Amino acid sequence: MKQKKLLLIILTIVCQFATAQNIQFHYDLRNSLNKNIPTSRNYLTTTIEMFKPDKWGSTFFFVDMDYNQAKGNIGTAYWEIARDFKIGKCPIMPHIEYNGGAGRSKFNGFPIDNAYLLGASYPFSCGNANFSTYLAYKYNAFTKTSNDVQWTGTWGIPLFDNKMTLSGFIDVWTENKDRTGVESGKKVILLTEPQIWYNVNSNLSFGSEIEISNNFYTKAAGYDSRLYVFPTIAAKWNF
């Protein structure tokens, strides 16, 4: 019941942020390319994404929905929201962020543990290309609290008079090896999702996202190796 309530809250938030800058549709090919993973089929993921700067800083959020259950039902709902704050003309800005969500397996629902981040970000440009990076303390609200650090980099690079765009992010963070606290020690996790888009016009784009991860998936979830590469076939509508 708690997981259903959390999912309802996330869906409500999505409706409230109806001014999102883009919506993406990704057909995930992971099952076709990897036979040793627990998913029994390829599936659709939708992403709603917004970045909005203002005179006080900027806000960024995205919401992912994985339609990976029977009959194409939603199996995972996950969102992140972050805020950078301007302090005068200082190029480095305070950064706060929240991550969380909920999921559903074949047998039961489960929460995606909340994470709270506090750090400093540095956005910068090089020609028409935009970049941003931040370093933050990360509080992971596992059964056994995990105090960690995360580094993130993002990019958006227009090419060929905006006919193509390279975008994406890279995250590197630490967390407890065992979220229950039975096993001690830390692990380092890498997650990056570079995207390439062909822009048909200012609204419609087609392309691909490649999820590359190391230590991100767990044996408890049915994965049997540390490194995975999952590409998608994608379309995007820019508002």
Please explain how this structure is put together:
It is a single chain. This protein has 239 residues and is mainly beta. The chain has one domain: Porin. The chain contains two helices and 13 strands, in the order H-E-H-E-E-E-E-E-E-E-E-E-E-E-E. The mean pLDDT is 89.
Name of the top-level CATH class: Mainly Beta
Q: What's the alpha carbon Rg, rounded to whole Å? A: 18 Å
Mean pLDDT score: 89
Number of helices: 2
Proportion of residues in extended strands: over 45%
CATH hierarchy: architecture: Beta Barrel
Can you tell me the residue ranges where pLDDT is under 50 for at least 5 consecutive residues?
Answer: none
Structural class: mainly beta
How many strands appear in the DSSP assignment?
A: 13
How many domains make up the coordinates? Answer: 1
Run of helices and strands: HEHEEEEEEEEEEEE
CATH topology: the name is Porin
